[in-house]
Write a structure and sequence with these properties.
alpha/beta, 53% helix, 400 residues, globular, four-stranded antiparallel sheet, Rossmann fold
Amino acid sequence: MLKNNKPLKPLTVFWVAIFTGIALILLINKIYLSGPEDNFYVNHHGKIPDEVISKQLKTNETIFLPRNYLGDYQRAYKKMMIIKRPKPRILVLGTSHSIKITADLFNVKPEEFYNAGIISASTFDILSLWQVALDHDKLPEIVIYVCSAQDFEDGRHFYFDKEFFELNSRSHSDNPTDFFKKYIFLAYLTVKDKWEVFKYAMRHYVIASQLKGMLQGYNLLPKTDTFQLKEKGVLSEERWAFNYDGSLIYDKNLELRDAENNQKEIMNHFKDNAERLEKEHAERKINSNAAELLEVFLQDAKRNNIKVIFVLPPYNNFGRKAIKQQLPSLFSFLEKSTNQIGRLAGEYSAESYLEINSSVYNCGDDEYTGTCHPKTSCYKKIFSRIKESTKSPLVKELIK
């Protein structure tokens, strides 16, 4: 005689559900959540230890770190330096195209200049650092905004959530529809970031406290000896470095690369990526939210009587010709973005120097890393031309 099946106890159902859920998570982890690279967490939360930054602030030494850490840690580093350093007279904002602008080009003390340029930055990154300066009463007399082909992109990083929301809250128009669209966009970016954090957690089976820390922006810090402090001017075989003034030192190979090897690198880059890059740039559009935030920045500057100078780093002769042949869509987008910047500069009494041809400044191809990353020697020529052209007594005074 068959026995009657007894209903499962609630506790049994609970544990069956738990283990089934875990099994599904592990399966999803292997099938879907395993990303191509496991660098998301440090990309958004990486942080140079406070004691290393404190020592740099005291000694003015240069921080050397592994190259693969540089892109990951720079946002937190630049944010912290703006907060902890004295108020600058000159603040540089921009992408990697700006990182060779040094304090030595200006008539200021080392602590009166800071280059807050970020490698692979979007307009959102750049202006988030502007918001940091605004929030902490570190507004300068002059902002040098270095333009690039990355302007008006829609990328945003988790580390700047607070600043980005503050910027965006000041940019909405009176049109309720525009306001609604903007905050839908914000919600999308935020949910996307949180989802990426969750995926990272699933890939590494972190415990609950670690997941909570990631979601709230805590840091899993590397060992202090990962970072080295040395005197300014030293070159490393492999490491890149942040100077006290915020400018960057490449590894020895890049710093000393001549025009011939630079051209080889450019051609190899196009050989491997031209078709993909051309397609990407052909599809790019000016992000309206980024354009509005740039206007908020200009309104802030005008309200606080801050002089803004937009500078487009010119492309070297070899690189410019190669790009025109293989990436015409890049120049098309660059023209659109510089036209937008030129228009905004005119509306808000900012100065703009948006020349794409390096011969205008007499910069040789050996004064570049890549196609459009001028070395300090080229920037010296660019700012000499700006000093000749400007009508601002302050700008003339502060440029050497």
